């Protein structure tokens, strides 16, 4: 049980953004991202399917060339290989799940 409750470090992948893995297994990973207002998640893509849940704050996302805004309680899925990114409009937290696990986050 102790290994399941291990604490992962908080890292800062970009200015105004922190990331912490909350849980992981080979087929699934849960990650918390905290954003300051104006911070960005640069456009990128990856082979993992990602679901995003907005815990707090307000964000403008770009997903496959389309822009949309999300706020607390919103969630959506990002398909494998889809280019996506975001701008934080009001400070907040996103909780992302990835399948399979993002080994580059470990």
Automatic annotation (TrEMBL):
Name this polypeptide is given: Quercetin dioxygenase-like cupin family protein
Superkingdom of source: Bacteria
Pfam family, one: Cupin_2
InterPro entries recorded: Bacilysin_H2HPP_isomerase, Cupin_2, KdgF, RmlC-like_jellyroll, RmlC_Cupin_sf
Domain Cupin type-2: start-end pairs: 33-89
Entry annotated with the keyword Oxidoreductase: yes
Record-level Gene Ontology MF annotations: dioxygenase activity
Keywords: Dioxygenase, Oxidoreductase
